[in-house]
Amino acid sequence: MYRIDRMRRDYERFTAAEGYAIGFHVGNDVYLAMLDKIPRRFTKLQKECSKNGGTMGLYINVKSKNELRKLVKGA
Questions:
Q1: How far is CA 45 from CA 12, 57, 73, in A?
Q2: Contact 58, 42 (CB under 8 A)
């Protein structure tokens, strides 16, 4: 199992969050997408250290932003 998968599993196990609000901008427009779960493709291991584990960050590329924009406009 990859470290990022382990981090996601532990986060989902202990979080009290019922959903996630993902905000992003494209040009001058600002979008807000409400998700039940953060997809794995949106997460990235930002810093890795053998002693303290690592940090997981949120990364949304242009393709993912376009997918989310369709969800937001379709709502």
A1: 16, 6, 30
A2: yes
Residues 6 or more apart whose CB falls under 8 angstroms from that of 71 comprise 33
Q: What length is written for the chain? A: 75
| R_g (Cα) of the chain, nearest Å | 14
Looking from the CA of 71 toward its CB, the CA atoms found within 13 Å total 14
Count structural domains, the chain: 1
How confident is the model over 11-44, as pLDDT tens digits?
888 888 889 898 888 889 898 888 888 888 888 7
Q: Could you list the residue range(s) of the whole structural domain that residue 49 is in?
A: 3-74
- Residue 19 structure tokens: 């959903």
Residues 6 or more apart whose Cβ sits within 8 Å of residue 65: 24, 26, 31
